[in-house]
Design a protein that fits this description.
Blueprint: H1 6-27, H2 32-51, H3 70-89, H4 102-114, H5 127-143, E1 153-158, H6 161-180, E2 186-190, H7 196-204, E3 207-211, H8 221-227, E4 232-238, H9 250-260, E5 263-267, H10 275-280, E6 297-300, E7 313-318, H11 320-323, E8 328-330, E9 338-340, H12 349-382
Parallel strand pairs: 2-3, 2-4, 4-5, 5-6
Antiparallel strand pairs: 1-7, 6-7, 8-9
Helix pairs in contact: 4-12, 5-12, 6-7
Length: 384
């Protein structure tokens, strides 16, 4: 049946885009705009108890005339946390919380407090944070095949998977513009790729060429090959995809990219800190990392199964030549030289320190144990 195959996903995305375009002229018809707004308002009223449940607590629409005491502020925040904590602790938060247990979270909070004022924008003041960032990148790279890559694997720490993806797409865009003269760049990706690629396309002026997935929800390699044109700057694969948790045929896609001399980005934000350990434990994990010559960049999130606090991701590149295209530098600003490796200027050094601490505290043995537990748990529920 059509619904059972990847073509359904492809058509559904196309239909959604078509409906969005159709809605604009429909809204101009008499009475339609008002009716749509009434229906939207009804939907929002139904969500209000969930999104705005604090009518009984003090609200601050303006600064208080006199500041409240730290004790009062803390008690207020404790009340908020106490109401929200049970819901995600009971497991009703798929894709939102990866906390690693209460002792681990308490440990990370202590580490963050040590570096809460640190800012990697000023490495002269906090060289320790710069060193921790470099070590996070190096440890992550070695976890994802750097030893067998045949080239240096480099990268940076970012704020989230979306920023990592956006930076990778910027690097490919600017690389293609400078080295190949491409001014209307295209990126080929499966319909199951993360929505962050759509955001990157809007911000960077990229054209996304979506291809269907097969009956197992994996990118269709034949469709990927057919979608490549002279304007293609990169191919995208997921390891795994967020909607279905399956790994795209990365070897096939990476080989296509290498043969055409274009980039291949693997979005391993969800699985990057699980798949390497699953493979070591003997589970059948298809190749997806820098061991494949055609893979030129990988995004991976320590703030998921890396058990770092929220706000930490890593973008990795095969070689320094590609990474330099993600950098920003203003050399003639009256305030002096201003350069940043990522989208952000000031960045929270405390998060980098806490992510580093999480990686050092768990180590290979810790992730092997965690990986085995998670995979066994998934297998248990899959058999039901």
């Amino acid at each position: 049946m059509l619904r059972e195959g990847g073509l359904w996903e492809f058509l559904r995305r196309g239909l959604r885009s078509w409906l969005a375009r159709l809605e604009r002229p429909v809204r101009a018809m008499p009475g339609v705009e008002r009716r749509l707004e009434e229906e939207y308002a009804e939907v929002l009223r139904g969500l209000e108890p969930l999104l705005k449940p604090y009518r009984d607590l003090p609200a601050f629409h303006r600064l208080p005339l006199e500041g409240r005491s730290p004790e009062w502020v803390f008690r207020h925040l404790e009340a908020l946390a106490a109401r929200e904590e049970p819901r995600w602790r009971k497991g009703y938060a798929s894709g939102a919380v990866y906390h690693g247990g209460e002792p681990h979270v308490a440990f990370l909070n202590r580490v963050y407090a040590l570096f809460s004022q640190a800012n990697p924008l000023h490495p002269d003041l906090w060289p320790s944070v710069a060193r921790m960032e470099a070590e996070i990148v190096s440890m992550t790279a070695h976890m994802l095949g750097a030893d067998a890559a045949g080239e240096e694997i480099v990268g940076t720490v970012t704020s989230c998977g979306t920023e990592s993806i956006l930076l990778a797409m910027k690097a490919y865009r600017d690389w293609a513009r400078e080295t190949r003269g491409i001014v209307r760049p295209e990126v080929v990706l499966p319909v199951t790729a993360h929505a962050a690629f759509e955001k990157a396309a809007q911000l960077l002026g990229l054209r996304l060429i979506y291809v269907p997935v097969d009956a197992g929800y994996r990118a269709d390699g034949t469709a990927v090959a057919r979608a490549i044109t002279r304007r293609t700057i990169a191919l995208v694969a997921s390891a795994p995809s967020f909607p279905h948790g399956v790994i795209d045929p990365v070897p096939e896609i990476a080989a296509l990219a290498r043969a055409r001399g274009i980039g291949c980005h693997v979005d391993a934000c969800l699985g990057g800190f699980i798949l390497p350990w699953a493979e070591r434990l003997g589970y059948p994990v298809p190749p997806f990392d820098f061991r494949l010559p055609g893979v030129t960049s990988i995004s991976v999130d320590p703030h998921k199964y890396g058990y770092a606090p929220k706000g930490v991701s890593v973008i990795l590149y095969r070689g320094r030549a590609l990474r330099r295209y993600q950098y920003f530098a203003a050399t003639d600003w009256p305030g002096g030289l201003y350069a940043t490796p990522t989208l952000l200027g000031s960045r929270p050094g405390g998060l980098i320190a806490a992510a580093w601490a999480a990686m050092i505290a768990l180590g290979e043995q810790g992730w092997t144990t965690v990986g085995n537990f998670i995979i066994e748990l998934i297998s248990k529920f899959s058999r039901r």
